[in-house]
Amino acid sequence: MRRRGPIACAAVLLPALLWAQGKDGDSFPYLPLRPGCRWTYHLLMEAKGERATVVVTSEVVRREEVEGIGPCAVVVSRSAEKLLNTTWYAAQDGKLTNPRYRGGKPHDPVLRFEGRVLLDLAALEGFTGEEPPAEKPRWAWTCSDGNRGEVVLDRRERLYLPKVGDLRDCLVLVERSHRYRGQGEARERVRTFERTIWLARGLGVVKEVLRVLGPDGASVVFRSEAVLTQFQEP
To answer: Which fold has domain 2-233?
Structure first.
């Protein structure tokens, strides 16, 4: 098993993103998720004035055929022996999507996403220079539990990580989503999630910052920052 730096990515909240095939059948350059790929992250969490750090690992455990979707890469994220989540990723028509997700508790249901595009190969054509296009690519999605959100391909950015080094050409995704409670007129928004995700060529997710906002959409009730410390590939 090869290692790149002593580094591992933290895809705990947006679990280790991405397996895709390029136009010629090669792995997508920003998302190396072949079975056996493994990321390790240093995750810092802050809530109610308290801070905690944990180590999170995400691994592509298998590929499987999902009815109505096709072949998917299955990623499992853990902290020590605790299962955090399982996420399915699919590549179709040059688009990387996240059609399924399940939390780490035994009773957690498998959530189904519609339209959750994380990256589109065609969209990268407008991100070849230093300045992104005026109209940034964006993809709206809905979830089987009633939640919804939007992913925006925001910019390219240079990023330095102590355990990984100087990453000169990262793609930056920005996602904003909402969690609701209740039905009909009683339906109310209880949480807003704001994520910023950095993808590096050949490594995948190298950094993720999450802010969780309260019902007012302004007060921060939780914040986390995950930074890759080690990436291993088969």
So the answer is: YmcC-like fold (2.40.360)
